[in-house]
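User: Hey, my collaborator sent me this sequence without any context and asked if I could get a structure. I don't really work with proteins. Can you help?
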Amino acid sequence: MRWNEQLSPGSSKMSFALPRTGSLESPRMKADLLKNLGLGGNASPLTDPKLVTYINLKLAALGCPTHATADAAEFRDLTESLLARHRETERLLADYQAPADWRIQQFLDEYLHETGVAVRLPHQTFVLDRHGVARALSLPPDGDEFHSAIVSSYRVRQGVLHNPTKDKRTTAGVFHVAEGGLPIPDDKKAVPVRTFARMLDAALKPPQTLLRLPFTSTQPESAECFVSVLLRPLVCPAVPGFCAEKTMEIRFFAPGNLVSNLDFVESIFGNAGDPYLPVNDAALDVEHWTGHTGCVILAPHLITVTKKDAGLPHFDQATERQRRDGMCWRDESELYNDGSAFKLTARDESGVIVTLIADNYFG
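Assistant: No problem. I've predicted the 3D structure and written it out in structure-token form, which is a compact way to encode the shape of the chain:
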């Protein structure tokens, strides 16, 4: 189990977790259901004007263009000094990471140490801190459709429809596992650690088109950023008199163009709130945390990386397994995994797992 050393050592408070029992009729439980699962609200995220203002405020805090609204001038006048102070605070705390991100970063620093490649998780992301924000971001407020090379989103009576360009998959050759951690099953492709390091570095440097948010796609200037969400999937249900329910923590990162993918995952697992707040720190909720931390990074642009640029050896220097798994090259122009979608995972006995998905994620 990894503990967050950035927290004050003098605190005697061991758990900030909200109680997980209580009547669904209580105001607090209703608020939790609304923020985590979007249940109980009267307005749809796609039609709530307050949510548009909230998103504009978060975009402005990141220094990104906002969506033009009728009260845009008044909005700027009211928030200008507040946002200036916020951005200065962010600059001074540029090295600070959310507790979950810190645990992931510690794992990466140790795992990649011998490669000489230093990779840092995105610091400034649009944090999806409540259910429905991702859905509102997936369409422009003044439009009913959004189209990109990867996904098309449509406003429909029930809410929103996300239709990925590629919706048929085969599992053949998809599962890649980095060496240096736990044993790799023979039916999975073994990947050198240096290759995982290079692919992770490339994953966090997507092209500008992938960073553009659908929310501002109809504006003269589009906001470009990463989006992220904290999830707490249930791993062990509560058994009265025996054990409390236990969850793991997962941080999802995606370039802005793929925010609809995060709308999908939070609709299944629920939104666990702002990862920077102590109340959402899994390590302070020892009774309900399994001790496992996951990180998923969507990076469909990785299918354009060549095997040579990924750090794979030439065929003549490759091992027998590398030749079998295609983890080597004869021609410098050969693409990693032949240019097909894949997921690349690194994990060890510490309980942290980092996965790169060279595709959209709707499954």
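In plain terms: The longest helix spans residues 72-92. You can pass these tokens on to your collaborator as they are.
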